[in-house]
Amino acid sequence: MTTTTPLPEPIEQTSPPVRLVRRRGRWIDGWDPEDVAFWAEQGRRIARRNLGWSIFAEFLGFIVWQLWSIVVVMLPAAGFDLDTSQAFWLISVPSLVGATLRFPYTFMVARFGGRNWTIVSAALLLIPAVLLGIVAQHPETPFGVLLVVAGLAGFGGGNFASSMANITYFFPQREKGWALGLNAAGGNIGTAVAQFAVPIVVTIGAAGTVNIALAGWVWIPLILVAVWGAWRFMDNLSSAKSDPGAAAAALREPHLWLLALLYIGTFGSFIGFAGVFPKLMADQFPELSTFQVGTASVSLAFLGALVGSLARPYGGRLADRWGGARMTVAAFAAMALGALALIAVLPLHSFPLFLGCFLVLFAATGMGNGSTYRMIPHVFAARAADGGLAMRRKGAAALGLIAAIGAYGGFLVPQALSASQTATGGYTAAFAGFVAAYAVLLVLTAVVYAVPRRGLAGQRI
Hints:
Layout: E1 21-23, E2 27-29, H1 36-65, H2 67-74, H3 84-112, H4 114-124, H5 126-135, H6 143-152, H7 154-170, H8 173-203, H9 214-217, H10 220-233, E3 236-237, H11 244-250, H12 254-284, E4 290-293, E5 296-299, H13 302-322, H14 324-345, H15 351-406, H16 409-424, H17 428-449
Parallel strand pairs: 2-3
Antiparallel strand pairs: 1-2, 4-5
């Protein structure tokens, strides 16, 4: 008779539960959002709380960043004497400063902590808001001083980089797209809110005049709330580490520069057109650019930034379905057609056609923002087939670098329109240049990314 010895029960290998350690200053050790049990029990709640305050702070950052786009249009009514070139410099210099600040801001979260840097970056918004409220009361202010104050509004543009860097550490890979999309959209909407609210605030109850100082003062209470909320409710993660080596390596990657060029064409066009749209509308249709609601003036210029902001998530979603390169090609085609239509419409002096063409252009730039940004991780993932982990590290660093470089479009677009106005007395030449640029970017996208290539592991992006 044979005796069978029962096999021992297999021992299930389980990872130890995540244990958070909280330290003074709201620092958290041991953060691991990829642990499913930890994420469900407490991680999601903490991450969403930080996301909410991050969105609010970034929203105010975009408002401050774009204040001068609408304030410039009102300066003549307040007694300021500016020529066209000076007006466009006041519109474009915040984008120049904001784009430049995005580079150091990207690394500040890892250096100081996400909560701590949100407090600092939100508090910095008080400087341009207060100074705008002061200089707006003095029409004799020299142009150089106005330019410095406008440049300080670039603090708001830098906030995007640190806010996105902070939020990416809080969420697991499977939810990063959703969280970063909300964070970005919350910021972009700030442009539309600034252009909608400022004309109302500065004219309501002003008895036919304007009180431009309120364009700066009105945001101060909200900025203080953002500073308090970050101090009271946000957290620092000790696991948030920057990777300067990967950033330096990414700058040597040719695809980073090509994708950055595409992002200048999409996001740069969005932020650039958002900045100049109030002035273009006031120049072309001064009698129709605003309308009265009681004692308040309402500008329709906010519609452009609103449409572009709302279109961005759909560009990313369609890129997931049809491919980022195909959607970016379609976006550049629509942008070229929109700019071409504006060339035909400008001589007709038709406000509905002018507004309609610009809204198509804004929708296309918004869709292109989403699809181009979605291409970045796909390109570097395809490159990782050859480069392995080192290429993945480059891809993570590239997201922040490309976002910074793309913001320079907010400076280039107004300057191109200013040069066109100075040289020819109109904006047609600038829009013809935009058509040519979008056509070149379309071809580049199609040739490099829309067809399978050996350098991208034979993949279509």
